[in-house]
Amino acid sequence: MTDGGRREGPNLSTPAFVAGLAVITAMVAALDILSGSAVRLFPLLIFLPAIVAGLGTVRQTIVASVWVVLAAGGITTYLGGEPNDNLLAAGFTAVFGALSVFGCAYRVRREEEVHRLRSAAAALQQLIVRPLPLRTADVVIDGLYQPVEEDTMVGGDMYEVAVSHHGTRVLIADVQGKGLPAIGTALAVLGSFREAAYREETLAGVVEAMENAVARQNTFAATTGEPERLVTALVLDISRRLDVEAVNCGHIAPYMIHRGDARQVDLGEPSVPLGVGTLAPGPRGGARFAFPPGAALVLCTDGVTEARDPRGAFYPLEERLEGWASDPPDRLAQVLGEDLRAFTRTAPRDDIAILTLRRSES
């Protein structure tokens, strides 16, 4: 792909493109002349510009169209025939060639538009998705991010890692809804987390800042006719201490793999999602759990736990993790994503985000 999204075809400055036209034309002409059949093959050359239009540039399609018109005229003149018939064949060939040129121009414009859209989506993805793997003083983080709308490259699932003087703070969240409509809320949550993770002394303060951001986003959405959205989120605070603080806002609790065993961490009753904090009976509380050296945490969104196979069975995440517990793969998130696709036997129906966390070696 060249700058501006134009697809590169065969290079006209090399003999390959022209030689290809010449060889095809020579083969068709030889078959027509040597066979002596009443059924002529040279009209098939009319499809040559259409083939070039689907693969090459506008300029190459014009060259192929002119070449075919001249070749068809030369072959019909050599083989003889009624002048009116020859003129009609040449005219039809020229019209089809012109249509091929217009078709190629339309394809090139569409490719340029797609390229621009994908460039914008890639820039947006860099704002939402941090490149992984990532190492901090406290933890090594790897992961997998796969939006359901692959062409958009972004979706409603998100994650973020913030390194502060309090420790490493990790967010994984899922915005209600899919694809581009959920991105505004996702950006609001990420922006508030990135700021609050450095500013707030407590994890509860970080979550409260995110709650306020979602509330403001929903207020704005209501004035524009957009639906209000909820956000499930799990926020962790990891330091040199052997335990981790977590605040669970209606999200999937993490799974821990340690000493050949895999289980879901008990964080107690989850709090309400972000965006409906006023409905909670009280402030969101945190929980602590052990995260010893050598253990691994697996965080994910419901695109994993709610995935189904063709028979309707849910993906058995804990069972799969138990199977890998004795010898966890180096790229556990990637292996999990591949196994998930094999289980569902189809493209994902929801955004997928998976994070794996291991303590950094001293």
UniProtKB/TrEMBL annotation:
The lineage of its organism: Bacteria, Bacillati, Actinomycetota, Actinomycetes, Streptosporangiales. It comes from the Bacteria. The keyword S-adenosyl-L-methionine does not apply. Residues 139-359 form the PPM-type phosphatase domain. It comes from Nonomuraea angiospora. InterPro entries: Bact_Sigma-Reg (IPR052016), PPM-type-like_dom_sf (IPR036457), PPM-type_phosphatase-like_dom (IPR001932). Pfam families: SpoIIE (PF07228). Keywords: Hydrolase, Membrane, Transmembrane, Transmembrane helix. SUPFAM superfamilies: PP2C-like. This is Serine phosphatase RsbU (Regulator of sigma subunit). Signal peptide: none annotated. The chain crosses the membrane at residues 12-31, 37-55, 62-81, 87-108.
